[in-house]
């Protein structure tokens, strides 16, 4: 299903297709987050039809004179059940309880005045994008969420093991509903999020989603999944996403990570079950068949300058094949430029 956007922030006009695994790459301030947030709002409200979804979109009501077109029956949008993890997820996980405490104190103070507490607080929160609000709400509701079981908790524990390997431990809630991190190999230690690394904080929403919420047909949307991750863990998160796709969870990401894209390339290139040499590589390097991808599962786009409008951007689809993987030039161009400069510094060439 193709979606066409016009006049959305820096995006003059862009077209992209929904699929099992959608990836948007590009430089900063080229419209990736605009596309992500708008798509999230449309999919959340799609049960009411496209026109109603657009009318209800807080993102569009914020002053964007955007146009949206669906290339086929817009009722298919209902098939996508989105769960978003915004780039602000680290702060949402860490400060949600402090924000709630401050709001409660403000309400108590306002009760002593003639001001309407709800109206005043609404003004403070109106500027937060819907995905950020929903990330905060998700953390706030964790005491209820942990009573549920996802498809992975019931049927596919290998996915949860892959996430624990990425995290280097597990999450738990303490008696007051706060999130704690329990490192692998030391179950007697539990750290609050304030005491934990930025990696631990950035993965909170994904971790609880996978264990307690995820169901077949979901669309997991992650803005910059590489946030706060070492290159080794960026590779692991690529393999985790591939596992999710192969277990019925659609994935949508924006990324700047060359490591992530290269790991996805590896998962494409290794998917040749009749090639004994590649099967030996898989076994030696610890790859599993459930992580491998096919070109038809992927939709990869790069933001690029729109030649018809100065200062505007569009989306350019990347070529994907089982023989060469994902063809993206932007990362390679940057790496080649750095190599050229260092060669000149060292060798005078």
Automatic annotation (TrEMBL):
Q: Which Pfam families match?
A: AAA_15
Q: Where is the Endonuclease GajA/Old nuclease/RecF-like AAA domain?
A: 2-46, 99-261
Q: Which domain of life is it from?
A: Bacteria
What is the residue range of the signal peptide feature?
A: none
State the protein's name.
Endonuclease GajA/Old nuclease/RecF-like AAA domain-containing protein
